[in-house]
Every structure is written in C-alpha cells, then in structure tokens.
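Practice problem: Porin
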Amino acid sequence: MIRKHFAGVAASALAMAVTAQAFAGTVTTDGADIVVKTKGGLEVATTDKEFSFKLGGRLQADYSQFDGIYTDNGDKADAAYIRRGFLELSGVLYTDWAYTINYDFSHNSGDSDNGYFDEASLAYNGFKPVSIKVGRFDPDFGLEKATSSKWVTAPERNAAYDLIDWANGHQNGLGIQASSTFADSFYASAGVFSKDTDDTDGNSIKQANGRFVFAPMHEAGNVLHFGLNVASRDVSDTAFDARYRSRLGMRGVETLGGNDAGPNGNRPVLGGANNSPAGSYDTDTAYGLEAAFAMGPASIQGEYISRKTKADSDAFEDLKGHGFYVQGAYTITGESRGYKVGKFDAIKPQNKSIGAWEVFYRFDSMTVEDDNITTASATRDVGDAEAKVHNLGVNWYANEAVKITAAYVKAKTDNVTNVNGDDDGKGVVVRAQYVF
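Answer key — structure tokens:
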C-alpha cells in the first residue's frame, strides 16, 4: 500500500513539474488538494500534510593548490574535483513516516560495494517529540557535523574531526537512532550502528553514539549553545585501520569526484597503523564538547575532541589523541547565521543585488600520542605528533542557491613530516556551490 501510494505521489510530482513552469498555486484533485512549490527544488505536498515529495540536490565544485607537507616532495600541486554531487529525495508518508534518500554522484560517500549513498533512511515521527530513524546515515557527533555541508563556514570541517572519522563519518552498515528536540532548548539523540567491518567470527563492528545539546538562546542572531558527545565501538578480534591521520584541511591531497594530487598527495599519519591485526586493540572511544555563541552578524564556535584506542595485547600500547578548533565569523552585510536547536543553518541574503558577504577565521589543533613508535621513520619522529591549521576565508552568498567560498589554509606539524622532510605547508581552496 505504501509503495503504491508513493508511486502515485511520485507520478504526480513529475506531472506537476511541467505545469509548475507555467503556473503556480494550488492544484485541486479528487482527494486532498496538492500544493506545488518550485522555489529551491521541486516539492509536491497534500494540503492535509499526509503525503509529500521533494526533489533537491547540491553541487560543490572545488579547485585547490597546495605545497609543503601537503605533497610528498613538497612541490606545489593542485586538484580540481566535485566535492559533493548529491541528488536528494525526501518526503512524508501517512503523516508520521518520513524518508530520505541522498545519492552522491561524486562517490565521496559510500563505495562501489555498498552504493554511493550519503543517506538512505526511514523515520517514524508518531511518538512526538521523539523521532526514530533506521537505515544508512551518519552517526550524530559534533556541532559542525550536525550542520549541513551546505552551510558549514569553511570549505572543510575542522581537522580535529579527522581523529574520529569513524565516530561521525560515512558508514556503510545500518543504524537505528532515537532523537528529540524538547522544551524548545534541548536536543538529545542516541543511536546504535552496525558497521561493515567484521571480526574474526564474522560479526560486524558495533558502535554506540550519544549527543546532548542545551541551547537557552536558539534564534538566528541570538544563539547560546552547549553540547556533549560520546561514541564507542568494539574493535576486539578485528583487523581494522587504526591510523590517526589528517588531510590538514586540504581535501585535494586525496579525494574522489575528479582530479586530486595523485601519488604525490600527502595525508600525514600522526599515529597508529593500517590493518592492525585482530587482538591488538579492545575498544575505541571518542568524547566531544561543543559551544557556540552568536549575536547579530557575529558568531563564534568551538569543539574539543578526545579519542582513545585501548590496547588488548601486551605487545601494543594505547593510542590517544585530542584536538580542538575555535572559529569566528562575521557577516559584513549584516545577516545572521540561521540556527535550529543543535545546529547552524543557512545565511539568507537580504540584498538581492550584492548578496551576503561573510569573513571567517578558524584555528585547528591536534595532538596524538603513540608509544608504539620507539624508532624514528622517514616521516615520523618519536614522541607526540602535533598539527596546527589556520583557515582564513570569505563566503559570498550570491542568493539562496549559490555560494562562492575562497580560503587560505596554512599547516604546521611537529614530529611528523612528508618524505621530503617538510613540516609545514600552505594552500588555497575555491568552491562554487549550487543547491536546489
């Protein structure tokens, strides 16, 4: 029945798309009236809000140049690629059910074996204010991760997230999550995920995530936000990638969706090793704190991240890492960043002629302790590895659909280098974004 009704809604949407190019307004049917919206994509919904169908997407085209530690030989390289190319389908079924299917044509989400889905989920919203979601979607961890990639300030999210890419990054298994926004100022979520990496018995890695947010001020231009995050996974009896590594804010060193720096791109490993044998480690745990404040066109935010991979063998030592970022942004044309409890949202230009202009600066810092390293290698000295990244840039929101970003990125490391011995590097990134 659901499949039949969905097909009817989809067919209606396609038919209305042609009509909507010439007319706007309400279309009367033999059932509930249908409203067609074409601003910011195509949306068809019944007036009783029982069914809806929305087709949208996002395109982010990046070009970057970088040198120093960002390449193996230290010479300048560049990259031109589609960072994200999403086709997004979402809607409501029988009032209480919601679905989301986002497919990434740039192949930076998912993989060839599991499909290139950024999300494929079904949610039940009948237990208001609690929503229960099941399917493939990213675990909930962190303010910048909760904020859509369309509306994060810098081209790439903070480098400290690289330490915990498993905790909030793309996953190819399935998960179930309960979340709720309540009392206007609180958000909470808890989820369990079954990843596609197996232990020696064929059991998938299990991961649990939790997030809690308190936002006593929660309107655009008037935000006070605090958050706490935790994630843990069982990696016992599992051969897995235990590397603590980072692109240091420069996606073009290694990416999909087009041209990157190829074999000369450098993604420094601060600790750990790939394909750690089963029985090496027991649990992998991450914690996060987040805070943000916004007043009018100005905003400041930051997060602290901590990770520990606990050893399960006398032959190995625990891996530990922590990092943070602090970011300030100011919209010189006066607009405020949008906000919904738990995340920031879009900046909507007030002036249709000049759009909205935003300047920003972000500082990222990471430290990794790996006492398994007792002898220096060509790229890693003994002792704690540290990395610091500066991001300075400008965003132009030409309108509600087009955003142009330019950023200067500079990185410095300690006890980790490229094969040429460089411990610093710099680069620029330019992005053209279109959303519908």
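Discussion: The domain at 50-435 is CATH 2.40.160.10 (Porin). Students who identified this feature from the tokens alone can consider the problem solved.
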